[in-house]
Write a structure and sequence with these properties.
498 residues, alpha/beta, 2 domains, 17 helices
């Protein structure tokens, strides 16, 4: 192993002490006094002890967020000032980039270089991008007809108002970035928030919350309750005084959230699972398409809801692409995220490692062939080999279900009709990829695939300006872009008879 990357001193201090949660500007223990352990997935060692919030803490946080929404400095603040504060959060993320990237590597396992080059600047950019909208949440003027009052005169307009107290439940695959995706639009629109980070990876969200207070967000506007999904998360999803829940996670839990939200019919946005088709046509530039298809699945160790986990290759080039992607997989150096030579770190937890290897065992017994990989890597740490599977069919779980690990199935197709049928043959609809030099084929395929994002001659390109979300069982609503603002505002029609 090359010399380990030196962990930022502030990050080391941060993990070295018990981490309380944030309610109303105070860093507090849970009402029960309980804490839970957070593990370093590269070693299996305990990294930190974090306050274990439950329904009582959620209730306290929601009351605080409600008070901050109804009165106080946040409710009175001008859009311009709010926008400046949101922008400043982006600046602080960049200033603390080494520290935040180190926390991501320690807590989630991803290579430091990737966290530093991708997660941190993307999180900062999200706040910078959103900040500009604070002053542009305009309504419209409208000219009503009202046919049953033909002689009346009207002046009508709409107001865009913050939706209220928002619960945000986020996953462990991009802990900092998912917090940014959620907090950026909520703060920009003037909502108040209770954030519940994933129990596997709460650290960067806690540090981000400190930076958000430093940026000038008033006390009570952001509350962070750490704890487990079945307790803290479920209490937040069910709480009667929460106006909206924004959730990112598995489709299974998304359905639980829908049920929990029914009590007060709170608004929901759900960014859920995927089993995304990635298509390589014969006329693609194979020098780009082959490594591109490998990165589409192996980026972030396959722990991406948008991962290109079903690779379809036009039959003339099937053998070449299968071999090329497998060679690429073989060349991936798996190891600690603190080793600068590492391409791929561990999966996030023992549970996730067991889940992924369970899929691999099932796939092999169903008749799938592991061209490369196919197993866990001996511990310590929760590593799994980058895996390429051939000879799969649509009814096998490895091809039908979201694995959320470094596992891709590769299949040939004969023509576009067959490809579209197979590509869309899933309950999910989050993302898709198309590799071709034929511009008509690219657009035709992009249109025909039922997915919220289609990447052409690229994959896993995310930007604050690009709306992201799912068709079908991949979710409701959109993150990012201007579209996300619709999900954090209510539109009020004001109708005046003159
Ligand atoms: P994964 O299965 O990949 O861990 P989950 O969908 O279980 O993803 O978790 C995503 C987020 O949802 C986490 O913050 C988790 O704590 C939370 N969560 C899990 N179960 C529930 C639930 N029943 N209600 C609310 N939140 C939950």
């Amino acid at each position: 192993m090359a010399t380990e990357i030196q962990i930022d001193e502030r990050a080391r201090e941060f993990v070295g002490s018990e981490r309380p949660m944030l309610i109303g500007g105070d860093w507090v223990n849970s009402a029960s006094g309980k804490t839970f352990e957070v593990f370093n997935p590269a070693t299996g060692e305990v990294l930190a002890n974090v306050a274990e919030g439950d329904s009582e803490d959620i209730d306290r946080a929601v009351k605080t967020a409600r008070a901050a929404f109804e009165g106080g400095p946040w409710a009175k603040m001008s859009p311009s000032e709010r926008g400046r504060i949101v922008h400043r959060i982006g600046d602080l993320i960049l200033e603390h980039g080494d520290e935040l990237a180190a926390l991501e590597t320690l807590d989630n396992g991803k290579p430091f270089a990737i966290a530093r080059a991708a997660d941190v600047p993307l999180a900062a950019d999200l706040f910078h991008y959103m900040a500009g909208f604070a002053t542009k949440l305009d309504g419209r003027t409208i000219a009503p007809t009202v046919p049953y009052m033909p002689d009346a005169e009207w002046h009508a307009y709409t107001l865009r108002e913050p939706i209220g107290v928002v619960g945000q439940i986020i996953p462990w695959n991009f802990p900092l970035l998912m917090a940014a995706w959620k907090l950026g639009p909520a703060l920009t629109t003037g909502c108040t928030i209770v954030l519940k980070p994933a129990e596997q990876t709460p650290l960067s969200a806690l540090r981000l919350a400190e930076l958000i207070l430093e940026a000038g967000v008033p006390e009570g506007v952001l509350n962070v309750v750490t704890g487990f999904g079945e307790t803290a998360g479920a209490a937040l999803a069910a709480h009667d005084d929460v106006n909206k829940v924004a959730f990112t996670g598995s489709t299974e839990v998304g359905k639980e959230i829908v049920k929990a939200a029914a009590g007060n019919l709170k608004k929901l946005t759900l960014e859920l699972g995927g089993k995304s088709p990635n298509v390589v046509y014969s006329d693609a530039d194979m020098e780009d398409a082959i490594p591109g298809a490998a990165n589409a699945i192996f980026f972030n160790h396959g722990q991406c809801c948008a991962a290109g986990s079903r690779l379809f290759v036009e039959h003339e080039h099937y053998d070449e692409v299968l071999e090329g992607v497998s060679k690429h997989a073989d060349s991936i150096k798996v190891g600690s995220g603190l080793d600068p030579d590492t391409d791929m770190g561990p999966l996030v937890s023992q549970e996730q490692q067991d889940r992924v290897t369970g899929f691999l065992d099932q796939g092999k017994s169903d008749g799938a062939k592991a061209v490369t990989g196919g197993s866990a890597v001996d511990g310590p740490g929760y590593f799994v080999q980058p895996t390429v599977l051939s000879d799969t069919s649509a009814d096998m779980s490895v091809e039908a279900e979201e694995i959320f690990g470094p596992v891709v199935t590769v299949k040939p197709f004969k023509d576009t009709d067959e490809l579209i049928g197979a590509g869309n043959g899933t309950a999910y609809g989050l993302a898709a990829g198309v590799w071709t030099k034929d511009i008509s084929k690219a657009h035709r395929t992009a249109k025909a695939l039922r997915a919220g994002t289609v990447w052409v001659n690229c994959y896993n390109v995310f930007d604050a300006s690009l709306p992201f979300g799912g068709y079908k069982e991949s979710g409701w609503g959109r993150e990012m872009g201007s579209e996300v603002l619709e999900c954090y505002t209510e539109t009020k029609s004001v109708c005046v008879q003159i």
